Amino acid sequence: PPKGKGPQGKRITLKVAKNSVRVAFNGRRRLDLSKMGIATFPKCILELADVEELDLSRNMLKKIPNIIEKFQNLMWLDLHSNQIDELPAAIGTLRSLTYLNLCNNKLKDLPEELTLLRNLRTLNLGLNCLETIPTTLGSLRELTELGLFDNALTIIPKSVKKLPKLEKLNVKRNPLPEFAEEEEPIDTVKRIESLYLVEKKDLCGSCLQTCQGERDELHKLEDTTPGPSNKPSFPSLVTPNSSARDNQEEWRMK
């Protein structure tokens, strides 16, 4: 067989694959081919298609072929940190999947068939290039965790937000309108933790000078505020407010 070169990645033999099967405490068999430099899906692993878990994370895979449908026992599939730019329709045949990790790939859209995985509890789609997600993702009613962080999403469908068992929904670092609102500057008045009122007689000379200086600056600003006249009249104001305005110099310093 031709030797694997550069972009073709490392060739996985059936012997290597068989030696990579581990049995977990829960009795499931996991085929762990993570960090192996794989660039194309190794067809030889079809011989081990009865495993319950498959880890192909941290490789150089660009495509997952339709033959993934042979792995009908899969409950756990980890494909994170590859270069996958599309998923095959056959992904929807893996009806036993409860965990699917597609984080840190190059997905631009999702196949509708993904919504056939009705037993999914964890779905990680973070760190991809998704601009939209199908509203039909709301049919994955067993989902408890959904990662959509670091994508290009401008809307999260209501059907997804209202998933009945969803406990964790991570949508951070997406250009969503609600994030734009959060970044608005906080009103400076809210930042004042304490405000102390003192009488003029209790201030030392330099403090009094500072306060009077700031008061004069405030008056200058008030005087430069554009308006029809220097002293606009507000006929609708009732008398108490008018008298308060007349006496404001007196009570401002007390």
Automatic annotation (TrEMBL):
On the tree of life, the source organism's domain of life is Eukaryota
Q: Where is the composition biased (Polar residues)?
A: 226-245
Alphabetized InterPro entries for the sequence: Leu-rich_rpt (IPR001611), Leu-rich_rpt_typical-subtyp (IPR003591), LRR_dom_sf (IPR032675), LRR_domain-containing (IPR050216), LRR_R13L4/SHOC2-like (IPR055414)
Q: What are the alphabetically sorted keywords of the record?
A: Leucine-rich repeat, Repeat
Gene3D superfamilies named in the record: Ribonuclease Inhibitor (3.80.10.10)
Q: Which Pfam families match?
A: LRR_1, LRR_14
- Looking at the record, the residues that make up the Disease resistance R13L4/SHOC-2-like LRR domain are 91-184
GO cellular component, as recorded: cytoplasm
Cleavable signal peptide: none
Q: Where is this region: Disordered?
A: 218-254
SMART domains from the entry?
LRR_TYP (SM00369)
What the entry lists under PANTHER family is as follows: LEUCINE-RICH REPEAT-CONTAINING PROTEIN 18-LIKE (PTHR48051:SF42), PTHR48051
The protein in question is named LRC18 protein
Q: Which organism is the protein's source?
A: Falcunculus frontatus (Eastern shriketit)
Tell me what gene encodes this.
Lrrc18
